[in-house]
Every structure is written in C-alpha cells, then in structure tokens.
Amino acid sequence: MSEGDAAASPWEQAALDDTAGTGDAGNAEGTDGTESPAPSLADDLEDWTQEPATAAPPRRPSRSDVSAWIAGPLPTTTSSLDDWLQGPIELHVEREAEDAWSTAGSVTGTWRPPAEHGRSRSSQPDGADGADGATGPPGSAGSAVSADSPGARPEADDARRAGPVFRHELHGLRAVALGLVAIYHIWLGRVSGGVDVFLFLSAFFLTGTFVRRLESGRPLGIPRYWLHTFKRLLPPAAVTILLALAGTAAFLPSSLWPTVMQEAVASAAYVQNALLVFLQVDYHARDAGGASPLQHFWSLSVQGQAFVVWPLIFLLVVRRARRGKSVRGPLIVLVLLIGAASLTWSVISTQTQQQVAYFDTAARMWEFAAGSLLALALPVIDRITGAHRPEEGRPPRLRLARALTGWAGIAALFACGIVLDVSTMFPGWIAIVPLAAAGAVVVAGHSGHRWGVDALLSTRPAAFVGDISYALYLVHWPILVLWLHHSGQQRAGLLDGLVVLAGSVLLAWLVTRAVDAPVRRSRWLEARPWRALTAIAASFALVLAGAGGWWLVLNQQSPQETTASAEDLPTDEVATTVPTVIRPAGWQLGSQWPDLPQRCAGPWAPSVSFPHVTCQQLLPGDTDVDTSETIVVVGSSHSRQYIPALLPTAEARGAQVVNLTMDGCQFLAGAERDGYCAGYDEYVLSYVDSIDPDTVLTTATLTDAGSAEETLPDGAASSVQALLDRGIDVIAARDTPRWESDQFQCAEDVIDGGGTPAEADEACGADASQKLAASNPAKPLADLVPAGPGDGAAAEVTLLDLSTQICPEGRCSPVLGDVSVYMDDDHLTRLFVEETLAPRVTELLANSR
Known about the structure:
Elements: H1 3-7, H2 10-20, E1 27-29, E2 35-37, H3 46-49, H4 67-70, H5 80-86, E3 107-111, E4 163-166, H6 168-188, H7 194-216, H8 222-251, H9 257-268, H10 272-279, H11 297-309, H12 318-322, H13 328-357, H14 361-385, H15 399-415, H16 432-444, H17 453-457, H18 460-467, H19 469-487, H20 494-521, H21 523-527, H22 529-557, E5 598-599, E6 616-617, E7 630-633, H23 637-640, H24 643-653, E8 656-659, H25 680-691, E9 695-699, H26 716-724, E10 729-733, H27 743-752, H28 757-764, E11 766-767, E12 797-800, H29 803-806, E13 811-812, E14 815-816, E15 819-820, H30 830-847
Parallel strand pairs: 7-8, 7-9, 9-10, 10-12
Antiparallel strand pairs: 1-2, 3-4, 5-6, 6-8, 11-13, 14-15
C-alpha cells in the first residue's frame, strides 16, 4: 500500500470505492502529474442524470443529499460485531460483493495495466480486488496482465497497481434480459428467459466475489455479505411493495386484497415462491390482468434464497485456500455435483408437476450452478482463446469468432418465447437455451469489432437500462397488472403498452435515484453491521405494518357479513338497483369456506389418518354419545358446502356433525379411482363402520362447467347402496352449477364499474338449462333399499335438490338479493347457504324420518 493510500481518510476512500467498479476505459491527467483513469461512459445512473462522479476534488454535500444527514465519519476501529462477523476488516466500505442486480460495479477480476500505461498508485482505491498488489486469475477477462506478458516491463511491476475491471457488456446484458422480461410480459404474455439470465449472472458475479477473496487471502465474510446484499436489495423492494399495496387498495377488486397482503409479506421475507407453490398458482395460464401485482417477486425469492445458501459452499475450501492451494478445481467438482442433482430434479419435476417446479428453488439451482461454473472456468477459457480487455490496448485473438458468438447469444436469447414457446417447459432442460445465450455473451467478451455485440451493450442507453434494471423489474409488473385491471384487457395494445413501459422506466428511475442509490452508497449504513441489519429489519417491518395494518383496519371497520342491507332484498330475485352492501365483501371470501369448530376427537376420532382429509366435528369430543345423533358429510368440497345448511337441524336435535370430505373426490365406492382419490372410498366405509352414524350426506350427481351435462357418475349408486346396507340413512345432494369463469369476480367487476346485479346477471349468469340437466339424475337412488333385513326401521335415501333456490325461475345468477351466490367458479358462499338454503334443508329434514 502506498503512502498516499494509507493516508486517505475513510470518507475519501469510500468515495474512491464508489468509482472503483466503473471500468476506466481511458486516462486523464491526475493531480500529481501522472495519468489517472477517466470515468466510464454512463455506467452509473448519476453519470448522466447529474454531474460525473469523480474522486477529486471533494465537494461539500448539498442539503438535499441523503448522505448529508445520514452519513458520518467511519469508525477507525471495528466493533465487536464486526469481529464476530468476519474478523478485522479494511477501513474502506466493502462494496465489491456483486450479483445480477448490482449497478455500481460488475467487477470480474483485476487488470494490471502495462508499464507504458502505468497509473499512479494513489489513483486506485485501496481495498479493491488486488489492492494488495496481487493479480486476479491469470488470463481471465478481467485478469491482470502478467509481468512477462507482451507490453509489460518487469522492472516496473512494483510501480503498477491492479485495478477492478468493469464489464460494460455484462451491464448491458442486464438491460437486454430485463427488457425482454418487460416486453414479453406487456405484449406477448410469454416466458422470455430473462429471469434465467439473472439467475445465471447472479451466480457468475457472486462466485467471482468469493473466489477473489479466497485467492487474495482475505476472509470470506459471509455474514457481512448477507447484510450488504439484503441491505441493498430490500429497501427498493419494500417501497415497491408498499406502492403495490396502495395501488391494490385503490384500483383492484377486494377479492384480490387478501392475496396481495399475503404476497406482500412473503415477498419481503423472500419466500414468495414457496407461497405460490402453497397456493398452487398457475403463473402461465392466468392472465396478467387476473394476477397479483406482486406475483413476479417469486424470482427474487429464488435469488434471495440462493444468496443465503450459495456462499456457504465456499466455506468448504477455506482451509485449502489458506494452504496456498488452488480452490477452483474442488469448487468445480462441488458445483457440478449440485448442478447435476438439481437439473435431474428439475427435469423430473417439470414433467410431473410443472406448475410447482416453476417456482421451486431446488429445480432452479442448476441455473445458479451454471453461472458459477462459467465464473470458475473463465480464466482457462480466456487464456486458451486469447481474451483481452480494451484497457490492455491490444485486440483479442479470434476477433471474428467472438463477435459472431456474442450475436449468436443475443439471437438465442430473443428466440426464447418467440420462436420457442417455453412457458410450459421451464425450468427443465430447455432453460439451457437462455443460459447458453448469456454464457456466449460472457465468453465472447471484448470482440475488438465496432459491430460486435459488446460494443452495442456498452452504449449509453444500454448502461442506463442496466443501471435501473433492478427497479424496473420491481415496478413494471405491478403497473401492468393495475392497468389491465383498470382497462379490462387481457393484454396491452401497442400504444397503451408503450405508456406502461414508459411509466415503468420513469418510476424505476425515481426508485433508483431516491431509494436504491442513496441506500447502496450510504457509507453510514455500511460502516457498522448493525446499521445494515437495522435497514433490513426496518424495510421488512414497514411491509408487515402496511399489510397487517390494512387487514386490521378492514376487520375493525367492516360491517358484520351476516347483517342484511337496509333494503332487506329477497334472495330469490335479482336486484335491478345496486344494494347498499353486497355480502360477503371480496376480502371476506376466505371465511366463506364452511369449517366445523372442533378437530375430530373422542368417539368420532378416526383410528388412522388419510392424506388430504382433515376430520372436523361440531360438538366437542366429550359430548354424551348416547344422546347424540351423528351426521357425517363425505365426498368432495361440493358436499362440504352444504354443511352450514345442516347446522340448524343438528343444533336443534343436539346432533353431532362430522366433516370427512376430501377436496376433488366424490364418494364413489366400487368405482375405479385415480392415484389422488385411490383409497378414499374404503377409508370412508371404514370410518362409518367404526362410529355407526345415523345419516351420511354426499353429493350424488356431477355437473360440467362447459355444458348442461349433469350425470350420475359410476359408483354413486353402489356407494349409496353400501351405506343403506349398513343401516345408515343417506342424503343424496344434487350437484351445484359449475362455471368456466369465477362468478364472484365477474359480478364484482361489473358492480365495481357502476353496474347493477341485473347487469352482472346478464354478463355472467346463464339459464338453468345451460348448467343443469332437465331433471335430477339422482332420482333412481330414491328407489334403493337395504339389501337385507335390518334392525328397526329400514334406512332410506333422501334426495336433496336445491336447484330452484340456487337458480330461481330457471336463471342461475351470480348475485341474488344482496348476497353473492358463488365464491369462485363452482362453490357457493357460506352466507348464501346459511340464509337461502338452510331453511329449505331444515324443512326437508323435519319431514323426513
């Protein structure tokens, strides 16, 4: 370290660090008479939105600068937390930790200038890669030119400093990848492969960061890396999430509010992908206009999880690095093993459960491994192919091949989603296409041709988009979703799509300038680990408070869902005026699933469990079994939706009600079942044998969403007969209409737009003849009798046909009176069942035996 470097103040040194990664392409006259590097062309947003960033002369911060009131002198000694995190660290702010979203310096190694282009030692930032005089990996795209390389003078080696190399073309590759993501989302509705490029680049830069630390003998500092990374990523994300919550409240229907609240917290915690798997969201099939404005955070969650796990791999070679041995070989083996396992799982999972595999971090980790492998192998590749950087002042070998390789990579990247519709194939082996395309651009590097793709990616416009790429990814999807909801379109047109894109760029620039850049460049936040941790915690707390506070306000201020509106509208008519309140509110739909208050216990507890079946009961487990009548509900969720209609009768009789339904599985004893439902019928029969209920309710018929075809499925009669033979009364319910679209959201869109329930009926409803058979297909079940003599009165079948209440006067409408009939495309709201169907069921059961 030179005397000038040692004397630099922490403030001055941090300023130098800010410009260290900007890739000095030319030389300028330094203040000491030597040549010093000139700033690069627009590799930072501030380079052309305000004045060029220079290390000297220092200027007094203006009052408007965030650093003027949050920054202070850096500590001269490390705190105890610093020591715990990584041991003593350099006095300068450590800013070289890179990933695909970095905007301040895509450093891929170090470059030692030839003696004839030597620079003053004081002109390079202390603590940058190679600041101790060590060179980067020989032959890498950003490596130092060795002392015996052409043009270098060994006698001047001690006068030369290694400096970081900024890969302008990789910064531009960010712009291309993000541009494809935005354009394909806005106009094409397809997967572009841009997200896969970001995963690839994240691993490429991250691996370079930690390998340089290992090879230079510095501590890995993994905890500090985590703090540095998430301190930089989370504040802009939190701002975007809060803006999305505000936009949701203002523009989106209330039925989407709970989903957005959940996704807000999950996005800030980097588990959005896990939440989407849990909710079984189909990212491809759903229109952007019907999607959550935060759904795109799934990829950031995958990256965030990788940022936590991937650095731990480098701990395995720390001792080897300390002994002075090469770490690249062992790391290549480790990464190959991880990548092979992940790719195998990705292919298998994509073929069997693509909807889940798309969001699965384990199925995506092989893409991270690919980026790491390239980072580890690039020095060898560059040495073999004769790569050189523009800073070296000499052209690389294979110039034509490099230029063609770069353009082939860009062409392949554009082909994803246009020529190849890969939406249903990701993230299996087909993701090799965008990864290979990005790898081609990286390997091509500096082509030495003015028409090379690296020249295009190094231009000022590409640098600008690269600078705002993180914020642009954050904001473009919420703006698109809000616009499509407002316009009622499935896809944006040419002109409005351009407006969405322009608005996204403007907002991304504002977020970058107002949030991202100040946080990223704050020396105060980087000075102590607890400050970075506070920034992370505060960002998450703001999101949690925003989403949680909104939910609390809704629950405190909303009227009770069971309170009728002032009009007291009859529930067998469609209102021609808009009721004061239409119940339930969209955000209350989650409470419309009928559940019983107790888990099965006591005499009603199953002896064994069954997948996807949660046994519930009305009365506690210690209820007197001698005086209780037991009604068991079995079959699919279409049986479950009738539970609220049974409760008045059960409560009047002191009867026990047990919910043993399984979503998606009718009770069809004796019928051939698929893998999901296999064994359910036998489980039901075993359960009723163990508790001997008085009555079993099940759905007997099956409706179809696209037609009036309503059938009595195979196994319906045999299942009813099996219950009758056991002396159990059967309530055979007729199925409810199914729809091709969400009836609640369809009516909600009409009414929120100023329409009436009658207009919603016209837009969304249908005649009963289009949704149900002319007569109940379950009628033959009423003639079934027990096969053998039984004790006491014979068991009998009661047909439950509520089609005239659900579709009064032959019309199936989404809203009757002031109550929504449906909660989705085929399930009735609990409120409608309680208020409209329960009286009819109570009357029917009172007249039955």
